[in-house]
């Protein structure tokens, strides 16, 4: 009895045209959602920030909406594409649009960083430029799906629209959770305290997390070393 043929894990298997450098770049852009999931997991584990957890929860909910929409609409992918699954709307376009729009909303409307003795946070204009970069990156990923013939332009546009709409809805929902006190309540639960979940990124930059304590520790260490040398 012959062994069954090997299958391809389509989650990371990307078709592109050999010799076409743009197609090769688009193949790497197709891995952006997987990379962002790794970034989410890394930040959640290392920083324990509830804002990042809420954003990741919204990202997963957005993916669930895409799964439902694809199976409701049941529109096939372009004929040139040999992949499997329905194409409307584009999950890549919806994923990166939700991420970029939510990040832009956070940077422009929720993130109010305070300067410290060791760090000057980004100004509103700098955060605006970061938002534009995120949106431009999302546009590049969405366009790559058309270039690689994984989706039609309509499927990508609908994916972008779905991601943007869900980002607006999710940002409004999380704003309600904050204003109504649900986030503060969650932070006081036993599980949140056990996992050391915190809510600092709204008023502090991640790059400044723990930096003041590190500088103070270095200062004390240098004083001790200098004291030993002077004896």
From TrEMBL:
One of its GO terms (cellular component) is endoplasmic reticulum membrane. It is an enzyme of class 3 (hydrolase). The keyword Membrane applies. The chain crosses the membrane at residues 22-45, 93-112, 124-144, 156-177. It is a multi-pass membrane protein. The keyword Ubl conjugation does not apply. It is found in: Endoplasmic reticulum membrane. Residues 52-171 form the Phosphatidic acid phosphatase type 2/haloperoxidase domain. Its EC number is 3.6.1.43. Gene3D superfamilies: Phosphatidic acid phosphatase type 2/haloperoxidase (1.20.144.10). InterPro entries: Dolichyldiphosphatase_PAP2, PAP2/HPO, PAP2/HPO_sf. It holds the Pfam family PAP2. Keywords: Endoplasmic reticulum, Hydrolase, Membrane, Transmembrane, Transmembrane helix. It comes from the Eukaryota. One of its GO terms (molecular function) is dolichyldiphosphatase activity. Pathway: Protein modification; protein glycosylation. GO terms for biological process: lipid biosynthetic process; protein N-linked glycosylation. Belongs to the dolichyldiphosphatase family. PANTHER family: DOLICHYLDIPHOSPHATASE 1, PALMITOYL-PROTEIN THIOESTERASE/DOLICHYLDIPHOSPHATASE 1. Required for efficient N-glycosylation. Necessary for maintaining optimal levels of dolichol-linked oligosaccharides. Hydrolyzes dolichyl pyrophosphate at a very high rate and dolichyl monophosphate at a much lower rate. Does not act on phosphatidate. This is Dolichyldiphosphatase. It comes from Westerdykella ornata.
């Amino acid at each position: 009895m012959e062994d069954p043929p090997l299958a391809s894990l389509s989650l990371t298997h990307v078709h592109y045209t050999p010799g076409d450098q743009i197609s090769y770049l688009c193949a790497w852009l197709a891995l952006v959602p997987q990379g962002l999931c790794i970034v989410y997991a890394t930040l959640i584990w290392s920083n324990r920030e509830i804002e990042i957890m809420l954003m990741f929860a919204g990202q997963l909910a957005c993916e669930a909406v895409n799964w439902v929409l694809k199976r409701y609409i049941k529109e096939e992918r372009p004929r040139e594409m040999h992949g499997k699954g329905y194409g409307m709307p584009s999950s890549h376009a919806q994923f990166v649009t939700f991420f970029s729009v939510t990040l832009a909303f956070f940077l422009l409307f929720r993130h109010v960083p305070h300067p410290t003795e060791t760090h000057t946070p980004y100004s509103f204009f700098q955060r605006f430029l970061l938002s534009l970069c995120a949106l431009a990156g999302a546009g590049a990923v969405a366009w790559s799906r058309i270039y690689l013939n994984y989706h039609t332009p309509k499927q990508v546009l609908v994916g972008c629209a779905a991601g943007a709409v869900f980002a607006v809805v999710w940002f409004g929902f999380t704003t309600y959770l904050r204003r109504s006190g649900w986030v503060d309540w969650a932070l006081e639960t036993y599980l949140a305290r056990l996992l050391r979940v915190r809510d600092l990124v709204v008023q502090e930059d991640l790059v400044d997390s723990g930096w003041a304590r590190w500088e103070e520790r270095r200062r004390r260490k240098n004083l001790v070393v200098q004291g030993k040398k002077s004896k």
